[in-house]
Model the fold of this input.
Amino acid sequence: MATNLTLVSAILRKLGVIDQLQSPTAAQGVQGLALLNNYLLDLQADGLYLGWWPQTGASALSSDAPLQEEDVYPVILLGVRQLASEYGISLKDPVLVEEIERAEARLNKRRRAEVESDFSDFPRAQGSPWGGPGWGV
Done:
């Protein structure tokens, strides 16, 4: 399972803010996690629920990220898009931009499939399995 620090580090590496051998400073880690919190909670408010809950403070960096394994890389890519503006970086690499767009589409598709297959909110039929009261009488 990926930690919050792993997420923030991967995002900052993709942006070129830190190199492969560096770790983010404490300030970069806390700031990156705060921005990731805001972004993922905003997505959740729009209906893209990833299981994320607020992760705050430096101590949260060492905690496991509340994400499913298959969502980690797409979240890293979406985090790149969000943190780029924070660091004044323009995403010009067309391959990266396309990869980010595909990641967002994959997350939406996964969540849509989960929602479309969840019938727990539907009312159950009344009566016997073969019909309502008095069926077949």
User: Anything to note?
Assistant: Residues 17 and 87 are 8 Å apart (CA to CA). The chain has one domain: 4-116.
